[in-house]
Amino acid sequence: MSDVKPALRLEGIVKTFPGVRALDGVDFEVRPGEVHALMGENGAGKSTLMKVLAGMYQPNEGQILIEDRPTIMANPIEAKHNGVILIHQELSLAEQLTVAENIFLGELPRSRLGFVDWKILDDRVGTILQKLNCDFGPRTKVGKLSIAKKQMVEIARALTHEGRVVVFDEPTASLTDAEKVVLFDVINELKADGVGIVYISHRMEEIFTISDRITVLRDGTYRGTLTTAETDEDEVTQLMIGRSLDYSRNESSGEFGDLVLEVAGLSCGKLFEDVSFNVRAGEVVGFYGLVGAGRTEIAETLFGLREPTAGSIRLNSSDVSIASPAEAIANGISLVPESRKEQGLVLGMNCRDNITLPQVGDMTAGPFVSNGAEVAIYDMYRDRLDIKAPTWRSLVGNLSGGNQQKIVIGKWLAMKPRLLIVDEPTRGIDVGSKAEIHNLIRELARSGYAVIVISSEMPEILRVSDRVIAMYQGRITREFTAAEVNEDNLVQAISGISGDEAAA
Amino acid sequence: MSSIAQKLTGGDLKGLVARNGIFIAFIAAMIAFGIGSDKFLSFDNLESVVRSSAMIGVMALGVTVVVISGNLDLSVGSMLSFGTVMVVDLHDKIGPGPAILVMMACVLALGAFNGFLIGFVRLNSLIVTLGMLSAIQGLTLIYSGGKNVDIDPSTQDTTWFRVFGRGDIAGVDMPIIIFFGLALIVGMIVAFTPYGRRIYAVGGNSTAAVFSGIRRRRVVFSTYLVSSFCVGVAAIILGSRVMGSQNNVGQGYELLVLAAVILGGTSLLGGSGSILKTVIGVLILGFIQNGLLLLGYPYFAQWIVTWIVIILAVWLDVAAKRGRLLSSIS
Fold first, then answer.
1. Which of A7, A237, A238, A248 could join A196 in a cystine, given CB atoms 3.0 to 4.6 angstroms apart?
2. Cα angle: B295, vertex B301, B306; to 5 degrees
3. What is the mean pLDDT of residues B122-126?
4. Where are the extended beta strands (E) located within B32-186?
């Protein structure tokens, strides 16, 4: 394989921004028909490298070779013409337009009169959607689709071009396991067609499922390229962060405190129905299920963001009704939401102000916010969570994903909650920070918090939970103890295949 | 670069210009006008500029609060007409004190109506306040029957109501004192209180604010109360100064006020900006208008120049943020 001409080669790429050497002499190549994974912690330079590749940035040094021909990518359109297609991490779709219009935006087929030829458009899009196993048609409005399905539209858009190299940047960040399987089929087909694939992801198990080779970046420098079949997670992690990590599963102690939360027969329209469970002090309860199974909606109901249509919520053995987040907070509930950028943080605010935001009303000296008290809280959680920010004045939007997530967690720990709910705590976060956050969740439970963890990542659920609640289409299908649960019975429980109390 | 210069500029001259562009533009304009007209930098002229900016300035304080929270208020101009007509009209009928109280209550009620529709019903603030702009103008005409109102000429020199527009403390004109005093109070509230913090949070990311337990509806509602309160104060200054009012005296002020806010550097996207910036924006606007008049340009030239200055200010602001003058490809 080594004598195959690479479809694309980057040589000695240097890209500097004022004060930062984002890429420092990086080499990278993709051969036709291979999946080449690009790994590295947040800020290692993966996205910058891909932006250089896609013509969004011009490198200061180094060159891009397409089939051994030096090429300058002046802009994304030129990159596309050279067969380099980037599928973005963040979706860039026009919500009000149909799937077909989005896929062929800017190059809609025309009839002789100059109008859009809907027949041809539908045919072409239909074929692509079929290839991707999508269950929606060309005329569906994009705004009506789930995030996962929008992602498929984004991929479909890339497939309309004759690609030499297709770059997937964190493609599975919002996909369920079932949808991942479809995505991997697509990637394998592209591969069989001789397309070179660059696959960027933080998720180790995906990288080992799909990739042929792995290149690792750290702090903007090239750390090495490994053949996937000849390496293991440890070696890759070592290269990425310079140390190895503990991937063990949680050993439940089985000794918990009083009941903190008791939920009985809780429903919220069709989003979830007749949900009953409880959480004790010192216990981590994991909620696992497909996207749309109703997990996040339960959390939002407990936090006063949704109004339940039936059922009861008891906190510390007394009935409560929670009509707003302010009331939830007053009742000692904290929610670390699913999407840190949209729901968790005010990106244009500094670190300190974000951390103290829910309790700023209680931190006053006279009519004014007490600067000293605020900085003290920030310092405390910066040290406890090891938040890496230049000063408390740094804008949260400038921090890495892992540090942003720590700010959100710190903000809610600072409220000293009795019940802490964390929704997708490590989405889009690098492995190093991920392990830290997992350990933190365990530590919090040990120190007496009742914790609910919602996650779409099975290893994460298995690693942190004392008990796992599986959900399927708005209902709880099964509850497992840490000893009972394994990957097989969990997958069964969330896909509605069987299980002791399978959903109707 | 010497070490002192480095300290002053943070080692980054471009960054300094980008961050403080508005101050630099201000000083440059002052120098240019000072060279062009020997009257411009005289104390009397400067004081007159600040005094005549005070009313716009008072309104701009409230609008700044609304804009920081991520909304707009275009109804302040016609609300000023309404308030001024009302306070002047009631002055002779029920006395200055009650007139002020009744007028403030009515103006606050209008603000509360804005706030209810935008905060609690969650209608778009542009639509609501644009609608209110014309609705309040209509309300004013219904109230006055279309006639201009005056305070009885025989009492104009004796009523204590004259103090707001014509009085002074130790030689400093009262409108200036009210403007700077109110700016100080509103500025402190916005910058240093929990309430102020919540306004920034709602403007910066209203979803995240809700997820942090902030009662967004109340915050948005309250900003319109602040805005209408400031309009009420401006109406008192204007009524007191002129001792009369036309039905459409505030027409077009909404744009001048918004111009001052934008010129100061408060982003229309919400979540950033400050009262201090707005005060500077108000002064720049005032000095530009005054300077042009002194240089002999006709009155209406200031409209065009103001527009150019605003476009330049906003342009430089976004250009500094993205590091290039035009938007990137496509």
1. A7
2. 100
3. 96
4. 149-150, 168-169, 172-173
Q: Are A102 and A177 found together in one domain?
A: yes
Q: Which of B197, B208, B330 sits opposite A343 (nearest CB)?
A: B208
pLDDT (tens digit per residue) in A208-256: 989 999 999 887 889 889 999 898 888 888 888 776 566 566 666 667 8
Contact status, residue B228 vs residue B114, Cβ threshold 8 Å:
yes
Q: Domain of residue B166: give its range.
A: 40-320
Which structure tokens are listed for A43? 């800020």
Buried b (16+ CB within 10 A) or exposed e, A361-393: bebeeeeebbeebbeebbeebbeebebebeebe
Helix (H/G/I), strand (E/B), else coil: A350? strand
Tell me: do A254 and A309 sit in the same domain.
yes
Please name which of B309, B120, B301, B308 lies closest in space to residue B222, comparing C-alpha atoms.
B120
Of A400 and A273, the one with more pLDDT: A273
Q: Which residue has the tokens 């006063």?
A: A304
Strand partners, B172: B169
Same structural domain, A30 and A136? yes
What pLDDT is attached to residue B330?
52
Residue A130: which residues within 8 A CB-CB, separation 6 or more? none
**A456 plus A382 within the same structural domain:** no
**Which one of A335, A349, A370 would you mutate to disrupt binding with B, by most B Cβ within 10 Å of its Cβ?**
A349
A58 to chain B, any CB pair closer than 8 A? The answer is no
Contact A332/B at CB under 8 A: no
Q: Which two tokens stand for residue A489?
A: 């019975």
Q: Checking DSSP bridges between strand A284-289 and strand A272-280, what pairing results, if any?
A: unpaired
Q: Is residue B313 part of a domain?
A: yes
> pLDDT tens across A175-210, in order?
777 778 878 888 888 888 888 999 988 788 888 989
Question: Which residue is it, tokens 């104009």?
Answer: B156
Residue A423 three-state SS: strand
Inform me whether the C-beta atom of residue B190 falls under 8 Å from chain A C-beta atoms.
no
* Structure ipTM: 0.86
Question: How does pLDDT run across A28-63, given as a tens digit for each residue?
Answer: 999 999 999 998 876 678 888 888 888 888 888 998
Enter the tokens of residue B102.
Answer: 């009744």
C-alpha distances out from residue A477 to A295, A300, A396, A472, Å = 12, 20, 39, 6
User: Cα Rg for chain B, rounded, in angstroms?
Assistant: 21
Looking at every residue in chain A, the average pLDDT score rounds to 86
Segment holding A23, helix H or strand E: strand A20-30
Q: What is the DSSP letter of A360?
A: G
* Mean pLDDT, range B271-293, rounded to an integer: 89
Query: In sequence order, which residues have a C-beta less than 8 Å from that of residue B106 and are 6 or more positions away?
Result: B82, B83, B86
Give the end of a domain, one of A384, A416, A448.
A416
Judged by a CB distance cut-off of 8 A, whether residue B214 touches chain A is: yes
Take residue B234 and report the two structure tokens written for it. Answer: 């401006």
Of residues A337, A346, A360, nearest to B194 (C-beta): A360
CA atoms within 13 A on the CB side of B230: 32
